[in-house]
User: Which sequence fits this backbone?
């Protein structure tokens, strides 16, 4: 028994030393990378800076509330608010690689970008592989948009999906019963066909949120509605096509975006670039990733709930 306990203590000590060593290496790496700017970092903390905020994957609210570090819409909104309050930050680049997300989550980020610009900061969107639907909605709030020639973007539209297993359930002899307070309480149920009245209600929801989308893009991009609507039918475009249609301002990569942002923010010389994640956050996220190989039943159910989205399908 004592041998097992000693082995356990030894493993715990080695793990602790490993963690300390890793943190030390991250610190050293950070110092090495910024060595050329060491005087700036140490003494010139007020130097003009550009913050780079990553928006990756589907955009949700509280999509990972149980995690130590959450990168959902609330995280992005909080980061934008933080950057807006830092005087040395003159501009924020939103590096978008997302197919879109839920309506409310997208609109919260959009609103925060508008607040950021009203505070006097510059906001520029830089597109990665995909910046479509809700990803494009967010970008339309920025001063300028830069896309790669092959970026997939556009998909301006709204989608609401509802599955129906009624026929299957009847075949295997399962019947579902719903006790409800009103005739529409179980609208969109997975267990029965949708009625015409329910379909009309959902169509009105889609039309309303689509109107909100197009109004935001029309205002943000300064595109007249009669020009926008014919190209806002849900189809996707390459970055090159989007440039010709006026949906983006320039073709280029992140480096090109930084150069454009410098000009817009009137920054001379090399700005200090601030990323949205600190080394300690990146290090601790390793342990989260190690425990995420399997999704819990609750997470699977949450992802498949009936919802209305600005999402590229």
Assistant:
């Amino acid at each position: 028994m004592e041998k097992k306990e000693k082995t356990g203590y030894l493993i715990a000590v080695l793990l602790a030393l490993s963690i300390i060593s890793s943190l030390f290496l991250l610190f050293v790496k950070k110092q090495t990378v910024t060595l050329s700017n060491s005087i700036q970092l140490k003494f010139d903390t007020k130097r003009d800076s550009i913050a780079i905020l990553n928006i990756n994957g589907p955009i949700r609210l509280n999509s990972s509330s149980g995690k130590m570090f959450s990168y959902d819409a609330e995280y992005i909104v909080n980061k934008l608010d933080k950057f807006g309050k830092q005087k040395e930050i003159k501009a924020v680049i939103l590096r978008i690689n997302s197919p879109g997300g839920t309506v409310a989550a997208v609109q919260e980020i959009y609103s925060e970008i508008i607040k950021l610009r009203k505070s006097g900061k510059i906001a520029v969107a830089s597109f990665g592989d995909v910046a479509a639907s809700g990803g494009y909605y967010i970008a339309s709030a920025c001063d300028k948009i830069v896309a790669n020639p092959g970026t997939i973007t556009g998909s301006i539209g709204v989608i609401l999906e509802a599955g129906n297993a009624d026929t299957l359930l009847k075949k295997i002899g399962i019947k579902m019963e719903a006790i409800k307070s009103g005739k529409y309480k179980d609208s969109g149920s997975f267990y029965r066909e949708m009625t015409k009245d329910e379909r009309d209600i959902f169509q009105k929801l889609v039309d309303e949120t689509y109107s909100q989308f197009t109004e935001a893009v029309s205002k943000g991009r300064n595109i007249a509605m009669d020009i926008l609507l014919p190209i806002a039918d849900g189809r996707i475009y390459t970055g090159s096509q989007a440039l010709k249609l006026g949906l983006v301002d320039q073709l280029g990569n992140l480096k090109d975006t930084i150069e454009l942002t410098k000009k817009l923010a009137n920054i001379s010389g090399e700005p200090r670039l601030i990323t949205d994640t600190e080394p300690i956050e990146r290090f601790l996220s390793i342990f989260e990733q190690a425990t995420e190989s399997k999704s819990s039943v609750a997470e699977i159910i949450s992802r498949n709930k009936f919802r209305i989205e600005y999402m590229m399908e």
